[in-house]
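Please fill in the sequence for the structure shown.

STRUCTURE ENCODING:
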């Protein structure tokens, strides 16, 4: 039996309060798939993100849906939601899109060329679907991950400098202002009170992860 392509990405953000459940947002993405036992997304696509802010608020965004191109400018949108009042705010930030190279697209399209013909035959629908996606793709999504520290939002992009690391935008959730653009060697697991934490797992279920802790320069926060 050949695997069928099934779109599986419906992201729901639900808020449970007492006996009621409130649907904060629902997103749909055409770039998330399941084919047989395989499921995933694509290298240029980010995933739905949300995180906690001060004053019982959350920030959320879907990089595939919360981007726009108007008046020759690219913009991504972050959504702020209050758990107390259900009030919503949006933050719009301009950005320069990162273009997929022709080599990247070609490498992804030809990934299955050397697979056994029997396997290719079974996966043909998936391979053709994947090929069409990369043939039409032009840019990476505006961001890949969002972390927060108090009222500060860290937007990690797909841009990576070999020496500096991952380009990251720091946004003030209260004012909506862009505070700084900084580089991280790697995307941390958490950022809390001016420190970035990275969990190093040994692979053993019997061992706790090693935690690396790094103090961030106050300039990161626009100080």
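FILLED IN BY: designer on duty
SEQUENCE:
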């Amino acid at each position: 039996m050949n695997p069928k392509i099934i779109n599986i990405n419906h992201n729901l953000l639900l808020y449970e309060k007492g006996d009621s459940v409130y649907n904060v947002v629902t997103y749909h993405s055409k770039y998330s798939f399941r084919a047989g036992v395989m499921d995933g997304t694509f290298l240029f696509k980010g995933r739905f993100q949300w995180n906690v802010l001060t004053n019982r608020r959350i920030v959320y965004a879907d990089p595939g849906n919360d981007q726009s191109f108007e008046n020759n400018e690219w913009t991504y949108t972050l959504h702020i939601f209050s758990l107390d009042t259900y009030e919503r705010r949006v933050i719009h930030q301009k950005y320069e899109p990162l273009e997929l190279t022709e080599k990247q697209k070609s490498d992804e399209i030809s990934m299955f060329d050397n697979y056994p013909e029997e396997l290719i035959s079974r996966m043909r629908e998936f391979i053709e679907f994947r090929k069409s996606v990369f043939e039409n793709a032009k840019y990476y999504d505006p961001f890949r991950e969002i972390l927060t520290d108090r009222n500060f939002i860290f937007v990690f992009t797909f841009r990576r400098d070999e020496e500096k690391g991952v380009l990251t935008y720091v946004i003030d959730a209260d004012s909506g202002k862009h505070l700084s653009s900084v580089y991280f060697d790697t995307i941390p697991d958490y950022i809390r009170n001016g420190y970035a934490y990275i969990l190093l797992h040994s692979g053993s279920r019997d061992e706790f992860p090693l935690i690396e802790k790094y103090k961030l320069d106050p300039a990161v926060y626009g100080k």
